């Protein structure tokens, strides 16, 4: 759920992202399973478990006595261990929201502290993942601490990179002491079809932000990058994702005033068949005004 909502009586895990939707955008994002899930609470994690897929959610509240990198390390270590113990070790897709993600903390952006903890948890517990990370998004909210939710499976997916962008896990240290642990997209085949999870995608070529201060150009390049990722995934999977009727996107906009302009460009580029949710969020580089992620199915 985006924005703020009271808890409901439903038994399933509910995530409150702390990201506010723009008007007329839906506030609730629901995940449906093909078999009835079991719901459980395991330590700090809320779980929905099906035969081949698990949803896990956890929030680490702000604590001045525990550094953000440590909270990120602990949360990700707990998540990785839990998923392994439960038999769903293959993380497909992770969503992260980090309170005040661009703020400075002892000389380093809070996003970079978060990345360090996430990286070190994966490096310690899942060195095999090194270049096979899940798809991910990481956004900043004005509230809510560190909030992580994910989908994981018993069998692995296939990571997809964008030939026009450096893999995030290879970013140079000018973007932080530990690189971000995510793949540009991840393909997952099921008996019933194939999903393509596209990570948060922005106005970046190679490793460098492009079009600083130019909203229209940033949205344009982010959508070019999404197209490139979809094209690459289509070649890998031999599936026509761009023509799929199941195309869900979430567009993140830093400044509320930019919403109408962004919606116009996104609608024009993605077409009427795409469902797009617009949320206000801080993006993980101060010079980025816009980011977009997707989930496409065939
Ligand atoms: C980028 O491409 C923009 O740290 O999990 C996008 C998607 C971004 C995921 C993450 C960060 C993350 O580097 C920021």
Q: Can you describe this structure in just a few lines?
A:
The chain has 298 residues and is α+β, with helices and mostly antiparallel strands.
Task: Describe this protein with a few key phrases.
six-stranded mixed sheet, binds 3-(2-carboxyethyl)benzoic acid, 298 residues, alpha+beta, 4 helices, seven-stranded mixed sheet, globular, single chain, 60s Ribosomal Protein L30, Chain: A
Largest sheet: 7 strands, mixed
What is the total domain count?
Answer: 1
- What is the tally of helical segments? 4
Cα shape: globular
Instruction: Bin the helical content.
Output: 10-25%
CATH superfamily: RutC-like
Q: What is the radius of gyration computed over CA atoms, rounded to a whole number of angstroms?
A: 18 Å
Order of helices and strands: EEEEHEEEHEEEEEEEHEHEE
**CATH architecture descriptor text:** 2-Layer Sandwich
Note the gap between the termini.
25 Å
Structural class: alpha+beta
Mean pLDDT value: 94
Quote the beta fraction: 25-35%
Strand order of the largest sheet: 1-16-15-17-12-11-10
The CATH topology label is: 60s Ribosomal Protein L30, Chain: A
Model regions low in confidence, pLDDT < 50 over at least 5 residues: none
**Associated small molecules:** 3-(2-carboxyethyl)benzoic acid
Can you offer a commentary on this structure?
- With about 300 residues, the protein is α+β, with helices and mostly antiparallel strands.
- It has one domain (about 20-295): RutC-like (60s Ribosomal Protein L30, Chain: A).
- The protein contains four helices and 17 strands.
- It has helices at about 70-85, 110-125, 215-235, 260-270, and strands at about 20, 40, 45-50, 55-60, 90-100, 105, 110, 135-140, 145-155, 160, 185-190, 195-200, 205, 210, 245-255, 275-280, 290-295.
- The strands form four sheets. It has a seven-stranded mixed β-sheet, with helices on one face. The protein has a six-stranded mixed β-sheet with strand order 2-3-4-9-5-8, covered by helices on one side.
- β15, α4 and β16 (about 275-280) form a beta-alpha-beta unit.
- α1 (about 70-85) packs parallel to α2 and α3 runs parallel beside α4 (about 260-270).
- The model has no long low-confidence stretch (mean pLDDT about 95).
- Bound molecules: 3-(2-carboxyethyl)benzoic acid.
């Amino acid at each position: 759920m985006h924005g703020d909502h009271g808890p409901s009586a439903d038994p399933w895990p509910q995530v409150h992202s702390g990201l506010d939707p723009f008007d007329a955008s839906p506030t609730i994002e629901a995940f449906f399973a093909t078999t009835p899930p079991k719901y459980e609470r395991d330590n700090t994690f809320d779980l929905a478990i099906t035969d081949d897929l698990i949803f896990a959610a956890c929030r680490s509240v702000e604590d001045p006595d525990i550094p953000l990198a440590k909270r990120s390390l602990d949360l990700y270590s707990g998540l990785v261990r839990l998923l392994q113990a439960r038999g769903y070790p293959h993380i497909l897709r992770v969503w992260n929201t980090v309170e005040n993600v661009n703020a400075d903390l002892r000389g380093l952006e809070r996003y970079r502290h978060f990345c360090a903890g996430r990286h070190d948890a994966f490096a310690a517990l899942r060195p095999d993942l090194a270049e096979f990370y899940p798809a991910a998004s990481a956004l900043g909210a004005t509230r809510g601490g560190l909030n992580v939710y994910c989908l994981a499976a018993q069998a692995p997916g296939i990571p997809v990179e964008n030939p026009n962008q450096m893999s995030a896990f290879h970013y140079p240290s000018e973007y932080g002491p530990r690189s971000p642990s995510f793949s540009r997209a991840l393909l997952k085949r099921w008996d019933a079809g194939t999903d393509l999870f596209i990570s948060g995608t922005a106005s970046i070529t190679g490793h460098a932000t492009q079009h600083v201060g130019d909203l229209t150009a940033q949205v344009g390049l982010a959508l070019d990058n999404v197209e490139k990722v979809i094209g690459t995934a289509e070649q890998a999977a031999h599936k026509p994702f761009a023509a799929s009727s199941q195309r869900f996107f979430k567009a993140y906009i830093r400044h509320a005033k930019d919403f109408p302009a962004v919606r116009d460009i996104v609608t024009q580029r993605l077409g009427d068949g795409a469902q797009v949710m617009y949320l206000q969020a801080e993006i993980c580089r101060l010079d980025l005004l816009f980011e977009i992620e997707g989930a496409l199915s065939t």
